[in-house]
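Session log. Operator J.P. requested a structure for one protein chain; no other inputs attached. Running the standard single-chain path with token output.
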Amino acid sequence: MNAEQFWTLKRTLAPKKLFEEVIEALPVPLPPVTVDQPVNVHILGSGGGVWALQLVDGHTQVTPGAAPNAICQVAFHKRHLREIVGGALRERGLTLMARLGKARQIPDLSRLPLDPARALSCAHLTGSIAIDVHDRGFSDTYRYVVTFGSGAPDYETATTTLTIDADEPIEWVVNRIAPKAVLKAKGVRIAGDVALPLKVVQALIG
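Structure written below.
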């Protein structure tokens, strides 16, 4: 898969095809590490499903079904997956790459400071974080929920809700805002257990 194919995936791409045929072929460079437990991704709604994603030697491996020892459960509706694959959020990815002077190039994530031991420690956190991405341009909100541990995903009643303006992450990346600073940044509102996002940041990067 080349850059043009990467940036022009159809928003109608079926979740099964995306997870079982496309994801392992994505040319996005990832940190060259192995994380010994996967993340379960739950796509809700008709045509959805569950897949376990694991980073092995810097490559994403996908297994159909939920793994029993997952670090966390990530849940969102199929229509919100479409915004990532070929919709409003993908378009913001194009804007970000252009702002970084790398228009329509493949994003290089290989230098993300991912420590496998720290990632595994997140499995012991308690609670769930809903990330509600508000898109002013379309007067819509895209919801993505992370539930820590191997239990069922807590989509409707997350213990913490982060509401984020969809345009703000572009500025955070361009200006290299530190993760802890993001929690207090413009365009971010936190409701519920306000301590949980900070615990996640501390677990991942200290």
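Operator note: Residues 88-99 form the longest helix (12 residues).
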